[in-house]
Write a structure and sequence with these properties.
alpha+beta; 282 residues; Immunoglobulin-like; single chain
Length: 282
């Protein structure tokens, strides 16, 4: 009787089992044994190849009525064949066509055939065989046709700046001279800026304040007395004044004074002249 009840109970248990699930588990165990482990051996590593970092220090170097010059610092990447893509469009024209420059191999580019007096948005990305980086955005106005073109500020040393520019796109041969405006107060109105007439297309500002901000702009004066619109304003910061320990005289002076203070004080027993004594055998 007991054996009969045991057989009935065993039949009820197996009747409620999901044989399909059991078969799947068994097949997984067999496949795991057949394929083995996916762990790498010792001192072996697997690196995920990711897209490069975006370029850094992207900036507009200069602009004209129909071109924009852009420069950047190379993106960090282990790949040597790194290139760059630039997509640009009119900023406030959502339906405007997006233009693209692909496969740029250097760190500078001049984008031509843009509209004058227009606000453009630029997106710069780094590209490798593993993908494209996130974009860096720049926004810049192009110059009017009558303004000085490609105005550029260059640091000659810590507190000396050279300002250069190219003639206007229109009325080039009618330019009499230029007027350069500059200020060290960014909040000042244009009437408060200092101005210097310049006959050429270059001027040097020496002996500026160290570690200070300056703004520069230029306008063209034509032979009939008219003036062009102002060029884009340049915002420049001079460098800090650095002291080199080998060039500062106070350090040597302090050493001399310390040596004088270390000398013993003279008294009435101190000999005025140092004498060298010698002994003689009699």
């Amino acid at each position: 009787m007991a054996s009969l009840l045991a057989q009935l109970a065993r039949g009820m248990i197996f009747a409620h089992k999901d044989y399909n699930e059991l078969s799947r588990k068994r097949s997984k165990r067999r496949s795991a044994k057949r394929h083995g482990s996916h762990l790498l051996p010792n001192e072996k590593f697997m690196f995920a190849r990711l897209p490069p970092d975006p370029p850094s220090d992207c900036q507009v170097i200069s602009t004209s009525a129909y071109s924009v010059r852009i420069a950047w610092t190379p993106a960090f990447s282990t790949e040597s064949d790194l290139t760059y893509n630039i997509r640009y469009r009119l900023k406030h024209n959502e339906d405007g066509k997006v233009r693209e420059l692909r496969g740029i191999k250097g760190n500078t580019v001049e984008i031509m055939s843009v509209d004058s007096c227009s606000l453009y948005e630029f997106r710069i990305t780094a590209v490798s065989k593993y993908g494209e980086s996130k974009p860096i955005f720049l926004v810049q106005y192009t110059e009017p046709q009558l303004s000085p073109q490609h105005i550029l500020a260059t640091k000659l040393n810590a507190n000396t700046i050279e300002l250069t520019w190219e003639p206007p796109f229109k009325r080039t041969h009618e330019v009499k001279n230029y007027i350069v405006y500059f200020t060290e107060n960014p909040n000042a109105s244009l009437s408060e800026w200092e101005k210097i007439p310049v006959n050429g297309r270059r001027i040097v500002f020496p002996d500026l304040r160290f570690d200070w901000f300056y703004m520069f702009s230029a306008t063209a004066v034509f032979k009939d007395g008219q003036r062009s619109p102002l060029s884009r304003a340049l915002f420049i910061k001079t460098d800090k004044l650095e002291f080199h320990k080998h060039c500062v005289g106070q350090s040597r002076t302090i050493e001399v004074m310390d040596s004088i203070c270390d000398r013993p004080e003279d008294n009435e027993k101190t000999a005025l002249l140092k004498r060298d004594y010698a002994s003689f055998a009699l």
